[in-house]
What does this fold into?
Amino acid sequence: MLAVCEYGDGRLPVIKGDGAVTVLASGLNRPTGLASAGDGTFYVAEAGSATEPGSGRVVQVRGGDTRPVLEGLSEPHGRALTRDDLFVLDRGGKAVLR
It folds into this structure.
C-alpha cells in the first residue's frame, strides 16, 4: 500500500498492490506529508493558509475519519512516528514538537 499527499487537491489517496485507489481523506488544507502508524492510521501535516499564520495543523486519518491532533502551527513539514510519540517539525515556528 502506498499513501500519497495531494497538495493541490487536498486529498490522501492510498494505492493498493492491485492498483486500486481509495481516497481516505479529502478537503485537507495543503497537505505537506504524512506518517503511518502501521495500523491504517495516518498523521497528515497541513500547511494551512498562506495568508493566515498559525493555521497549520496535524490531523489523524483513521477509517475515513479525520480529526485534528495538533493545531496552531506555522509550516508543519517534518514528521516522525515512534511506537509512543509523534514528532513534528514546525518550520515556521522553528520548533520540534512532540
